[in-house]
Design a protein that fits this description.
This protein has one domain: Acetylglutamate kinase-like (Carbamate kinase, 3-Layer(aba) Sandwich). Helix content is about 40%, strand content about 20%. The protein starts with 7 loop residues before the first helix and ends with a strand.
Length: about 290
Amino acid sequence: MTQARREPKQTAELLIEALPYIRRFAGSIMVIKYGGNALAGASESDALASFAEDVVLLQAVGIRPVVVHGGGPQIATLLKKMGIESTFIDGLRVTDAETLDVARMVLVGKVNADIVSAINVHGSIAVGLSGSDANLIRADLHSEAMGFAGNVAGVDPTIVNGLVAQGLVPVIATIGFDAAGQAYNINADTVAGAIAAAIDAEKLVFLTDVVGIRANAEDPASTLAQVTTDELEALVSTGAASGGMVPKIEACIGAVRAGVNRAHILDGTEPHALLVELFTDGGLGTMVLP
């Protein structure tokens, strides 16, 4: 299908609209959580190519992106093929030893490698990491009921800061390790929030498969353009936000209260949603304010 040709004037107007945002954010660090749902919600090759182009463009205009990725749907697909049932509590995957092995294989061996390769099509700038690298993500037990699903016990941002300073793009798989070397599968939303706080990011952006945060989970028309951390807490306490949205909201609240200037939740299945949210007046998703 031939794409409609954009008029030169339209292109110029888009660039002019983006210019003040590019100037404002140049030199700043942005943590981008690329969700497995965003990748699974469209043709994987098209979705990944579009996301990679966005990341490379951010870096080209002086912004320093750090990518944290999930892979829940991809893990679920492989578990199903293996005849292993997935169980969730409050939006988090219960992880026994077998599920942990699958999660490590999918996140580190497949999704991380695919994202790094897609970015590096445009230049050798992406570097794949997991929580074991330079003690990046320290983990501890979430609860006995969750098995090897862990919490973030701490983040050592040394390796991330070093790569960013060299003009590279860290791509982080969210497998953490405790002091004894035990691996844990940690929710990627939680890790993204912790890393954003640890490296003093300007923004934390969640790319998922929903258009934003809804005041009423059943009503798409109730999607919020802006919301404060206090208002988000109220949404969770009343049950208006539930399931997989809860870890995202909690990560937004924690990161913004820790000093991250803004957090965003938007539909990453839309081509170039990241650029539209960051560089246009209207944006696409929900922006979280202090």
